[in-house]
Every structure is written in C-alpha cells, then in structure tokens.
Amino acid sequence: MASTAALAVLLLLVGVAAAADMSIVSYDREHGVRGLDRSEEEVRRLYDAWMAEHGRVHNALGERERRFEVFRDNLRFIDAHNADADAGVHGFRLGLNRFADLTNEEFRATYLGTRSRGSAARPVRAASDRYRLRDGEELPASVDWREKGAVAPVKDQGNCGSCWAFSTIAAVEGINQIVTGDLITLSEQELVECDSAYNQGCNGGLMDYAFEFITQNGGIDTETDYPYKARDGKCDKHRRNAKVVSIDGHEDVPQNDEQALMKAVASQPVSVAIEAGGREFQLYKSGVFTGRCGTELDHGVAAVGYGTDNGTDYWIVRNSWSSDWGEDGYIRMERNINASTGKCGIAMEPSYPTKKGQNPPKPGPSPPSPAEAPAICDEYYSCPSGTTCCCVYEYGSYCFAWGCCPLEGATCCDDHYSCCPSDYPVCNTDAGTCQMSKSNPLGVKAIPRFPAKPRWAIVSDNEDKIKG
C-alpha cells in the first residue's frame, strides 16, 4: 500500500447575445416540450451563444464539429431530464453549464481528484464521538453557514484534480471564522505544492492528510499571498512559513451516520467526499439533487448547511467548479435517504478541523525568495528560471539558436516556434494548440517562445533582482 506504484494505482484521477436564457438554456419554457425536438438551426444558435459565453475557441481540424456533437447530445439529455422535471418526475433541473461540450468520460478524467480512506497510504485519524447525536438531543431545523459569514465566495479549481485542497480550505476558513470572527480566504495552492508527503497535488489527495499538514506546519498562508495557479509547482518555503491561520487538529465524523453529520454541520462547515462523476451531476443546474450516483468517492466538497424544500430534506454543498456551475457554485443534495451512506456517499468519510484559540501573531513581510538558477541551454545561452529551453534552429545534433518557453517543464513543439504546458503536453502544430493527450482533444492555444539570452545577461538580471 505504501509503495509508489500501489499509491499511483489507488489514486483517483484528477481535483452572448440575446439567445435563450443561458442559465437554463437547456429547457426554455417558451418552447414547451418542443425542446426535445429542436431544429438544427436552433441547436447551432445555442451552441454559438454558449461558446461565446464560455470563451471556447476550437482551432484543431474537425474539433468544432466534434464538440458540437457532444454539446448536442448533452442538450438532448438535458431537455429530456427537464421535461420529466416539469412533469413532476423529479425536482431538480439540468443546464448548459461550462461542462456542456464534454463527454462524461472527459469530465470525470479532468475534474475529479479526491480519494477515499480505503486507498490511503497510511492509517488516518479514527472517528470522534464529538458529534454523535445523543438521545433526546435536538438539532436546528436548518443551518446555512453562508448567512453566518463563515463561507468564502465559491472558487474554481480549474483543470487540476485539487478538489481535496478546496474542501480542506473551506472547512478551515469556516472554523477560523467561527472561533475568531474573521473570514480569511486561505491558500489551496500551498496545499497543492507543499503538502506532498501523502497527497499528490493535481493528481488527487485526501482531506485528512491536508488537515494534518496544516496542523503540523503550524498554520497556512492566505490566498492573496500564495495565490492559486491550477497546476502543480515547487513549494514556496517562505510562504509556507507565513502561518496566518492555524488549527489544533482534525477529527472524523462517525461514518455512515447522517444524524452525526447533521450535528457536525450544525456546528461548523465539514469536508465531505462524494461520488460526483455522473452525467446528472456534471450538468446539474438547480433544485434538490435526487439523481443517480453511487458511493465510489471521487470528489472533495464542503457541507455548509442543511434544510428542507417542499418536504425534501437536503444538504447545502459548496463545490469548487466556479459560480457558473449549479446554484451559483452550490448543489443541494438530498438528505435522509434510505441508505446509511447518504446521497452519493456524503456520510461515508466526513471530517473537520478543530480549533479553540486565536491565530499566531501576524507574520511580518517575507524575505525575498533567493534568485533561482537559470535554465541552461548550452555553454553560451540560458533562459530565465522557471522557463524551458527550446531549440529554434537545429542542424544534426547541434542547436545553433535557442528560444525560451515561459513555463517550467514545457513541451517544445516541432515547429521550432511554440511550446505547450506540462498539463497539455501534446503539440498539435497544424492547429496551433496543445492537447491533454492524443486521445483527449481538450486543448489550449500553444504558447510562443521568446529568444534566449547570453548566459552573462541572465546572471546580470538575477543580480539586479537581488539588489532590488
């Protein structure tokens, strides 16, 4: 279990115009059930408006049409579902959100990234009885920590399987506000880059380990000073030592006990793991989610309240897919179902940070990070630190001219002009794009290189930075 190979196997994959209302474009009441029989012209109009709203650009040959067919298929699924919702079959609706041009397989491969305690590299803390419901104990009928000022605005994990970090930080931000009265937005990137003993950044992690990291580290920095990048990187040791908010430890809610989870959420925001890979979850827009899902935990979120809507009990769950998804970034998930695991496994592995005292003294300004060594291209030329050397003109086995890609660990494309980031490492030089893999055409525009400098010039630049 502790071996690198076993751990890798056990890690879950990564963490415009006046068209119809794009918030629920999927089922425009103006058309009634006719949404199930949309014309080609109408679907293309919706697609063009959706692309404009979400800034989608497809340059690869045939990629626009391929994405359009995926969009059309998702739209059919949305329309059929929402027609059932209007008929009273269920109470939640789907919509054309940011994931509407992704197949469910692509969605799951890109945006999920937590793992369960069953796949943990080492044992984690046992459950506590702190929130086990006692006989005769009564709980509030509803709780919403957003109204109490303990929940920061919804964030966006991007194309990085770091949901575990966002779940952890939401719970820490919450307990810190409850204890100190201050809502301080904290750094997920510090966890992604520095919490590497058992968690693996954009490749997945476990909230219990992240709580333990913050405890052992003596605290965590703010998001402002250690901002999110949506990619792995090197731990900034100076920022890691800026311990703005601390916790005393963490505990687990008793497993498979929604009453215990309810008591915990009545006391503070709680980190929970759920199965979020279903198509209904991918395209969720509003209402109490009663859709299909299992208990293969693959996504970390935060339970920040609960309530009841028209006789259906629900959890208020804060996600990390931006405010464009769901109910302004939230989902209400059915509560008190006929299964001990809870909806989508929400009651299987809840955990929370503990905190009693105030935070450490406010840290002073961090010293400037020492200048990192440049990227050496050859004995004459170098690129700045944090970039990649790429050959511009090659003859035989010798490079006569160098360029610099403004990213570390980048792929140098064969056109001798562009490069691709490490998370989109496949160059499509015909289209000028970078893809996640040959089988996954999701891509971004290729990045142009800039000329390398003689090595003496790079050294001079670094010396100027140290003096400044």
Automatic annotation (TrEMBL):
Q: CDD domains annotated for this entry?
A: Peptidase_C1A
Hey, what's the signal peptide range on this chain? 1-19
Q: InterPro entries in the record, alphabetically?
A: Granulin, Granulin_sf, Papain-like_cys_pep_sf, Pept_asp_AS, Pept_cys_AS, Pept_his_AS, Peptidase_C1A, Peptidase_C1A_C
**What Gene Ontology terms describe what this protein does at the molecular function level?**
cysteine-type peptidase activity
GO terms in the biological process aspect are: proteolysis
Q: Where is the Peptidase C1A papain C-terminal domain?
A: 139-354
Domain (Cathepsin propeptide inhibitor): residue spans on this chain: 47-107
- Coiled-coil stretches, from where to where? none
Give the keywords, sorted. Disulfide bond, Glycoprotein, Hydrolase, Protease, Signal, Thiol protease
Family statement = Belongs to the peptidase C1 family.
For this entry, the protein name equals Oryzain alpha chain-like
